[in-house]
Design a protein that fits this description.
Layout (H helix, E strand, L loop, with lengths): L1 H34 L4 H27 L5 H17 L1 H55 L2 H8 L1
Helix pairs in contact: 1-2, 1-3, 1-4
């Protein structure tokens, strides 16, 4: 008897924690979407992966803690955990994640900009080098054709 109550209590706690984790993971996804551009298709794929992962996690835990017995209270408790998370610490976590991702984005943009400017500088120098190289070839070809000597004699 106590074993059944113990396993049901464990399932209750695990369901509550899973509901909180669902909210936290979704806040991470929301923060990533806010800070980085996403197409509608990518958002859909992320949502499908999110729901498939948590569905798998729920089924695993139901078999582990409740011997595979589906009970409605498991889902009610998970939703309760999600609501508790959403109404308590969600906004603070979301703001913190946004700040962290914003700072990370800024840290990546500066070297990216420097690299982009370096590539521009490299391309510019290569084009100048090619210009002088091609110009020298034209001068050499002009001199070797003999036309350059005639023009020099006329001066």
């Amino acid at each position: 008897m106590f074993e059944i109550i113990y396993s049901q209590g464990n399932m209750f706690v695990v369901s509550l924690i899973m509901g909180i984790c669902m909210g936290a993971v979704y806040d991470v996804l929301r923060s990533i979407r806010k800070n980085f551009n996403h197409s509608d298709m990518l958002v859909g794929i992320e949502d499908i992966i999110y729901w498939l992962f948590f569905t798998w996690l729920f089924i695993e835990n139901i078999f582990k803690y409740n011997d595979g017995s589906f009970r409605i209270y498991i889902f009610v408790v998970a939703i309760t955990g999600l609501v508790i998370y959403k109404n308590t610490i969600s906004s603070g976590i979301f703001k913190l994640l946004n700040y962290i991702l914003y700072c990370a984005k800024k840290c990546v943009e500066k070297p990216k900009k420097m690299l982009k400017n370096g590539v521009k500088w490299y391309k510019m120098n290569i084009s100048i080098f090619r210009y002088f190289k091609n110009n020298k070839k034209e001068k050499d070809a002009f001199k070797s054709s003999g036309r350059g000597k005639d023009e020099q004699r006329e001066r």
